[in-house]
Amino acid sequence: MSGTPGRVGVVFVSHSSKIAEGLVELAAQMAQHTTLVAAGGTDDGGIGTSFDKVGQAIAEADSGAGVAVLCDLGSAILTAETALDFLDDDVRDRVRIVDAPLVEGGVAAAVAAESGASLAEVVAAGRSAAGGRTESDGGASGGSAAGAAASGDAQTGHSRTVTIVNRDGLHARPAAEFVKLAGTFDVKVTVNGKDAKSLLGIMALGLTKGAPVEVASADPAGREAVDALADLIETGFGEA
User: What is the mean pLDDT of residues 206-222?
Assistant: First the structure.
């Protein structure tokens, strides 16, 4: 058993070794403490997938907390499924193939794993990349929560409006930091109507420097979370 103790590992399966390795490099910018493993290409370095590489990647990523496997094309999924068939029962029970776009889903899954999320939560984060607007990434439920707090309908709620100060706006790295901090609170918080715990939802807002951001919660216990997240935005996420 390898992997980072206590964290779900993420495996990227691609027909191209360069794509798989590039995705690990990309996701590592936002999930530095999570075990991310590339399983790309064939055993001889060609284009395709390798049963052995996938099996070895799962073993490397597995710390006991679970492994999320993301694939690029249909035959990669078949290779991953075959690899799972040859795992011991106890290992197979904690490995999931995630039905999600490889890039967006992989990054979302990696960020969720970095925050200490469970395997089910990591899988859900990855799948959120495929489903568009959902309750968890800023659908009607998220919007109504923000609206209630902002309009005063929920008098016990709390909201703050702050401004993006980062030169490059709310790009991937600060967005990941924001989501990780949001994940430390049990209450629901929204960012311009999007769930603060949804990386893809927040990045989809396209927030640039100078953009106003409303951080809100209708939960009576949400003040601490709102203030912490608003303060993070105001301080520029530690970027110069």
Answer: 94
Reduced 3-state DSSP string for 153-196: CCCCCEEEEEECCCCCCCCHHHHHHHHHHHCCCCCCCEECCEEC
pLDDT above 80: residue 153: no
CATH of domain 140-238: 3.30.1340.10
Percentage above 90 pLDDT, the chain: 64
Residue 15 annotated as catalytic: yes
- Which is the catalytic residue, given 15, 33, 158, 171? 15
- Among 200, 204, 192, 201, which residue's Cα sits nearest to residue 233? 192
pLDDT of residue 150 exceeding 70, the answer is no
The domain segmentation of the chain, as residue ranges, is 9-127, 140-238
Fold of 9-127: Rossmann fold (3.40.50)
Residue 35 confidence (pLDDT): 97
pLDDT digits (tens, 9 = 90+) for 64-84: 999 999 999 889 999 999 999
